[in-house]
Task: structure prediction
Amino acid sequence: MANTSSAQKRIRSNERKRVTNQIVRSKTRTVVRAAREALEEKTDAQKAVLLAISELDKAASKGVLHKRNAARRKGRLMKQLAELAK
Result:
């Protein structure tokens, strides 16, 4: 257990941040998974990919994902979408 009051406060604030980050990360993963499934099934893939890109941008802006991690994931999704369009 933390000894100082500032350390105790950090524990409380870190727990709040962990919960909110978990919510954002879970939503992002769900949308990305749905986009990948839409790409495999070739049904309404463009709409799903654009929604996933939006969620990745939101997660990156909130600091849940690193901006380059989000960019890499977006690039991979767009590459698969472009292959599908050919």
The longest helix spans residues 5-41.
